[in-house]
From TrEMBL:
Protein name (database record): IS1 family transposase
Annotated InsA N-terminal zinc ribbon domain residues: 1-36
Recorded family membership: Belongs to the IS1 elements InsA family.
Keywords tagged on the record: DNA recombination, Transposition
Residue ranges of domain Insertion element IS1 protein InsA helix-turn-helix in the record: 43-73
InterPro entries reported in the protein's UniProt record: InsA_HTH_dom, InsA_N_dom_Znf, IS1_transposase_InsA
Gene Ontology BP annotations: DNA transposition
Amino acid sequence: MASVSISCPSCSATDGVVRNGKSTAGHQRYLCSHCRKTWQLQFTYTASQPGTHQKIIDMAMNGVGCRATARIM
């Protein structure tokens, strides 16, 4: 069986990451024993994905309105 090395997005530790139950949507949650942060790999809420905030800022700086940004996202 192959093992996948998962690193903490907060402190980048790989040795202290343990499974920590499931979310309400059924996705696996993880816990970092070094910084005590929890996260999941699959997001159900689009705004939680990395890079979404920067995309919204780029659209606003290029003159895209709020409603158009919401349609695109």
